[in-house]
Design brief:
The protein is of the alpha/beta class. The protein has eleven helices and 13 strands. The protein has a five-stranded mixed beta sheet, with helices on both faces.
């Protein structure tokens, strides 16, 4: 049996493509592309195809050496048919990933949700190794999660279980990228923090983050971290607000599902420890007393690689 697969983590801002040794979890080589969702779904397909070709060329592997291609996409997916049903943060709907990649590479292609694959990676080689009852929550462009029970991903009746980002936290609240109002994602994601900061700047608030911002580019997690290090009042205020909402979402998970462990990952968690620490402290205070004493929190250990490693094990 071939022991190397290609794992792809298809996110709202970047596409990470990697060769993964499935026996050890080692990432043998990787390439990274900007998603540029504004150029349309076909451009995303082209970036994945070109990225795989670049990966093989640079690593000196041949397509004959590869067992399969696994893709994790930020959104709702049809796993059986390999179709992205709806991914607001990618602006993709009814996109047949399997059909496109199989026609180019003649390999088995499997599709999963992006946080589902991250959970798989962390369960096999990361923060959840040895734990079969946990919830994985990733905070970046959006907010996604995956539920693991008895060592298996819980998909739900329609395959969409774990959409914590679309938990309603304000019935008449902000509009989310999904079209609904009051979703957690509209309050607790990096994108939400970015919008709050930009809105305040337009109203004349001063912030150290202006020293890092570039015209036409998003506010990154590293910019947020640098501003916090300078005790910037506006950025800290916006991050605290996001932590308030995310902690409420986590407390609801703890009360409802009662997992042993919650793993937090994604760009915002990795870059901004203040956000992570504030969120877990508030989550413990908000959930019921008994689970509050038992719940364990960990940061994802595999970093950027959790998704591509997990994707390599899709089948």
């Amino acid at each position: 049996m071939k022991k190397v697969s290609i794992g792809i983590d298809l996110g709202g801002t970047k596409i990470l493509i990697a060769l993964v040794n499935k026996e050890t979890g080692e990432v043998l080589h990787h390439v990274k592309k900007k998603t540029k969702k504004d150029k349309g779904p076909q451009n995303i397909i082209r970036k994945m195809v070109n990225g795989i070709e670049e990966l093989l060329e640079e690593s000196k592997f041949h397509i004959e050496d590869i067992d399969s291609i696994g893709v994790g996409a930020a959104g709702q997916v049809d796993r059986e048919n390999g179709i992205i049903i709806g991914a607001p943060n990618l602006d993709c709907y009814d996109l047949n990933i399997r059909e496109h990649l199989t026609s180019h590479f003649n390999l088995p292609v499997y599709l999963g949700n992006d946080v589902e694959i991250a959970a798989m990676g962390e369960m096999k080689f990361g923060a959840a190794k040895g734990c079969d009852d946990f919830v994985c929550v990733f905070v970046g462009t959006g907010v996604g999660s995956s539920i693991v029970k008895d060592g298996k991903i819980i998909h739900g009746a329609t395959g969409t279980a774990g959409e914590i980002g679309h938990m309603i936290v304000d019935l008449n609240g902000r509009q989310c990228a999904c079209g609904a109002h009051g979703c957690l994602e509209a309050y607790a994601s990096r994108s939400a923090i970015e919008k709050r900061i930009e809105g305040a700047l337009r109203k004349g608030r001063h912030s150290a983050i202006l020293d890092y911002m570039e015209t036409g580019k998003s506010i990154s997690s590293s910019m947020i971290q640098k501003s916090i290090e300078r005790d910037d009042e506006l950025v800290i205020q916006c991050v605290n607000e996001a932590a308030e909402y995310l902690s409420g979402g986590l407390a609801s998970i703890i009360n409802f599902i009662n997992p042993k462990l919650i793993i937090l990952g994604g760009g915002l968690i990795e870059a901004v420890d203040y956000f992570y620490q504030t969120t877990i402290k508030k989550a413990r205070a908000k959930c019921l007393p008994v689970p509050a004493t038992k719940i364990e929190f960990k940061k994802a250990q595999l970093g950027d690689y959790s998704g591509v490693i997990g994707a390599a094990f899709l089948k």
